[in-house]
Design goal:
The chain is built from 42 helices and 16 strands. By secondary structure, it is of the alpha/beta class.
């Protein structure tokens, strides 16, 4: 595909027809934004900027469909729009950029630049009407072409080919009569070709043109070229202050390409921010070298010491910059404002890149901004400089895993790292994929050839000593973190160190108030985010912003929090806030049989977040699981088991069996160590229920019996009742109905004595189900009807739905197929409204049976497939056998092709 001239698409040496003007314009717009998603709205705006037909969306989709016949999978849907996915070899504009980029690093630069220029066949998209939306992209291409030509001609002159370059330089200057860089190159070329008089005449003509037509004097670079001719000496070199780029630089491809393109385009100020150790300075210097050819008058570099105890004053920095620009002694103004004015004057008319490394604040940077649009400034800072006027902000995250692996290999040795990729990945993960930490780890390996990768990986396992291990020579991760942390105001510092108490998981912003026991402290979160010491993770499912500490920053904060006297109290206060929210949310979910939801005292916590309790649990699921771990590790046995139990209604509703089992197992260790029998009984009963779902009946029975005994020892009749009922479930699932009935009857006695009406409704329904399995239909109907009525009186829709499932099975056994279908459909509708995945699947299987009974086997087949998918996805082996039997019955009842249904 070619856009550097008329729009063309070639395939197998044949030029393809691209259709009408609008269709070709759509392709052109996508090509100008190749490999970037373009929304439908952007396409409509580009193609019909003034008035548009009613069928505009349909038109765009038609054009896309027609182009896809030609472009195959290169034209793809992207969100609500489209993206043209092409390589540099498939689009001339991309190939041009690649060749020019390669020329900056290749000894064959001259040949590469000639190849790049040869791709141009005229003005970009010259056979299509001008579109305002294309102007920035086309202007960038035109500027890139002109820069490449200048670069190629400069190389020719430097290589002694001045005579060949002079005609082209004259033509280029005629085309761009005010471009001083072209004029300066022509002056140099003429001087080198011993044509000094012509060189001076070219300068004089340019000076007259600038003065007469624009009222300007030539810029410093051009004046220096004229002086060099007059003195018969080489033109003085431009200022080149950039530190060298690291040789093992890797990664950051997307960020680098975006920033390079911006600095070569219209962006005059760009900021690079990110957490400590993320490689901001290394990245910025690399980019500065990449774009140095775009700033032929030089590159200035200054370290602003923003993370030092005393960041540099802007006035002192201006002195350094003016010295670099040749202003010394009496020529240097005494006032800062006058220095800033002179600095801007010295840069006027020049194309200079200024790199300001490690800025402390916007106020430090603003006096150092040039006024000339030909100059650009690249700023690095650990703090977000969002107030920097007109700046493009590039925020660097930690490396992706493959980038981290590449850097480690580049430092420690490709063969060494590739030989143990698993260990290397573990080291990179322990480093949090932070470039500085990986660089330190690589340096330690490089300096210790006798170490295996496993040695370092094992040294990094312990979080309490990890930062000590990540130190090598002058490189130290802890020292880098200290520079940022000590800049924090006191309240932000207290918040930062206490946030380490919350572990590895993300968290909502409100916890800062609880940790500090200081209402109105949420603004401290913003300060930590601006300091890049806290990472914003976006909003969760209920719209609250979430945050996390980078793993290594958390290790650093953990070292600091050891000196905080109230750290245990702060952690307990926060865990109790989560517990109260979880208990409150659990009470708003369908009642889960057997779960013990503790009564806890109200605390100050954002109850408004519980408007949709399922959504709150989903948003906090990982954090709540982590909170159980934290409570257990802190020895808070009551909080640990009560929090684990409070999550069960949600875990049960959405089949999160792994979370259920893991949180209970962790809390169980804690309550046993504390001798907390009530908590142990509740947890054992919960773990046993998971065993039932997983079809692990021996383990389930053992757990229920242990729970029963513990409940008896603490005098908890309700607990005994639910544990005994659990044993009844095990025997029912084993089809030992007489034994199951005995346990259910005993459970009912205990629960009636305890007065737990919801559990009584559940056990009555279970007894009815067992009667049905034993063939006692009348007894089954009486018990089930009684259970349904009690559930309805309690407003327990969830329990009522489960009773309806059992009634549907009973109606099928008695041949009442219409009532069977009605009951099953009602049950499925209720459970779907309650978003209970497991029970919905259970009811769907029953509904499938009812559909088979009523002559709808195909609908039954489709429905039971849905239930099976749920069982398999959630690991619920309890319901899968029944679903498979129903699926087989549905398949056997579906007429074969060509046969008649019976």
């Amino acid at each position: 595909m070619r856009v550097l001239g008329p729009l063309e698409v070639w395939r197998a040496d044949r030029r393809e027809s691209l259709g009408g003007v609008k269709q070709r314009a759509l392709l052109a717009h996508l090509a100008l934004h190749a490999n970037t998603g373009v929304s439908l709205d952007q396409l409509v705006e580009a193609l019909w900027p003034v008035s548009r037909p009613r069928s505009v969306v349909s038109n765009v989709r038609t054009y896309v469909w027609q182009l896809r016949q030609l472009l195959d999978d290169h034209l793809r849907t992207h969100g609500t729009g489209y993206v043209l996915q092409v390589s540099a070899q498939e689009l001339d504009a991309l190939q041009f950029d690649e060749l020019v980029s390669d020329a900056r690093r290749s000894p064959d630069a001259l040949e590469l630049l000639r190849q790049a220029e040869s791709l141009w066949r005229g003005r970009p998209l010259e056979d299509l009407p001008d579109h305002e939306a294309w102007a920035p992209a086309i202007a960038r291409l035109d500027e890139a072409r002109l820069t490449a030509t200048e670069q190629r001609l400069a190389l020719q002159v430097a290589l002694g080919e001045s005579a060949a370059a002079i005609p082209e330089l004259r033509a280029l200057l005629a085309e761009h009569p005010y471009r001083e860089s072209v004029c300066g190159q022509l002056v140099v070329a003429l001087q080198q070709d011993n044509r000094r008089a012509e060189a001076l005449q070219v300068y004089a003509d340019m000076r007259s043109r600038l003065a007469d037509e624009l009222g300007l004097e030539p810029g410093p670079a051009l004046r220096e070229a004229q002086l060099a001719v007059l003195r018969d000496e080489p033109v003085s070199a431009a200022i080149r202050q950039l530190p060298p780029s690291v040789s093992d630089f890797c990664g950051r491809t997307n960020e680098s390409e975006a920033l390079v393109a911006a600095l070569r385009g219209s962006v005059s100020v760009a900021g690079v921010t990110g957490p400590p150790g993320v490689g901001k300075s290394t990245f910025a210097i690399r980019v500065a070298h990449e774009v140095s050819d775009h700033f032929p008058d030089g590159q200035l570099y200054v370290d602003l010491a923003g993370t030092a105890d005393h960041p540099r004053d802007a006035s002192d920095v201006l002195t350094e910059l003016l010295h670099a620009l040749g202003i010394t002694g009496a020529g240097l103004p005494s006032q800062g404002t006058a220095r800033a004015a002179l600095y801007r004057s010295k840069l006027a008319g020049r194309r200079v890149l200024v790199v300001l490394d490690d800025a402390a604040s916007v106020s430090q940077v603003v006096p150092l901004l040039p006024g000339d649009p030909g100059c650009a400034v690249l700023v690095t800072s650990r703090r977000r400089l969002s107030e920097l006027p007109g700046a493009l902000q590039v925020e660097l995250p930690p490396f992706e895993p493959e980038e981290a692996f590449a850097l480690l290999a580049g430092i420690a040795g490709e063969d060494r790292v590739s030989a143990q990729p698993g260990e290397a990945a573990a080291i990179a993960l322990a480093c949090g994929h932070l470039p500085l930490a990986i660089r330190v780890a690589g340096a330690r390996l490089a300096g210790r050839s006798g170490w295996s990768m496993q040695v370092l990986r094992e040294r990094l396992v312990d979080e309490s000593t990890r930062l000590r291990e990540l130190s090598s020579g002058e490189l130290a991760v802890r020292a880098s973190f200290d520079l940022s942390v000590r800049q924090l105001p006191e309240r932000e510092y207290h918040a930062f160190v206490r946030l380490a108490l919350l572990g590895q998981h993300d968290f909502p912003g409100w916890v800062v108030e609880t940790l500090l026991d200081a209402p109105g402290s949420e603004e401290l979160v913003d300060g930590l985010v601006d300091a890049n010491l806290l990472e914003s993770c976006g909003a969760d499912g209920i719209g609250q912003p979430r945050y996390r500490l980078h793993d290594l920053l958390r290790c650093h904060a953990l070292e600091l929090v050891r000196s905080v006297p109230d750290r245990a109290l702060a952690l307990e206060r926060t865990l109790r806030a989560w517990l109260w929210l979880a208990v409150t949310a659990a009470h708003r979910l369908p009642v889960t049989f057997g779960t013990t939801i503790a009564s806890v005292d109200p605390v100050h916590a954002p109850e408004h977040l519980l408007a949709e309790p399922v959504a709150w649990f989903e948003a906090e699921r990982r954090t709540l699981c982590g909170a159980v771990d934290l409570a257990a590790a802190a020895g808070l046995d009551e909080v640990a088991w009560q929090l684990a139990a409070a999550c069960v209604p949600f875990f049960d509703l959405h089949s999160h069996y792994e979370d259920w089992a893991r949180t209970h197992a962790r809390a169980l260790q804690c309550v046993r160590a504390a001798g907390n029998k009530a908590g142990e009984a509740a947890l054992l009963r919960g773990v046993a229920q998971v065993h039932i779902y997983r079809d692990e009946f021996a383990e389930a029975e053992q757990g229920m019996l242990a729970a029963q005994e513990l409940y008896r020892s603490v005098g908890d009749e309700r607990g005994q009742g639910i544990a005994v009922a659990g044993i009844g479930v095990v025997y029912r699932l084993r089809a030992e109905y007489e034994r199951s009935m005995a346990f259910y009857v005993e459970a009912l006695r205990l629960l009636e004595s305890a007065g737990d009406l919801h559990s009584i409704a559940h056990v009555r329904a279970s007894i009815g189900g067992v009667h049905g399995s034993l063939g006692a239909s009348d007894e089954a109907l009486r018990w089930l009807t009684d259970a349904r009525q009690l559930a309805a009186d309690l407003g327990d829709l969830h329990r009522e739905a489960l009773v309806l499932v059992r009634l549907s099975a009973l109606y099928r056994a008695t041949g009442e197929h219409e009532a069977e279908l009605v009951s099953a459909r009602r049950a499925v509708a209720i459970l779907m409204d309650l978003t209970d995945e497991r029970c919905t699947a259970f009811a769907q299987v029953e509904l499938a049976e009812a559909l088979i009974s009523n002559g709808h086997p195909q609908a039954a087949h489709d429905l039971v497939q849905q239930a099976l998918e749920t069982y398999r996805r959630t690991g619920n082996r309890e319901g899968e056998p029944a679903a498979l039997r129903t699926l087989a019955r549905a398949a056997g009842a579906v007429p074969r092709p060509g046969s008649l249904a019976r």
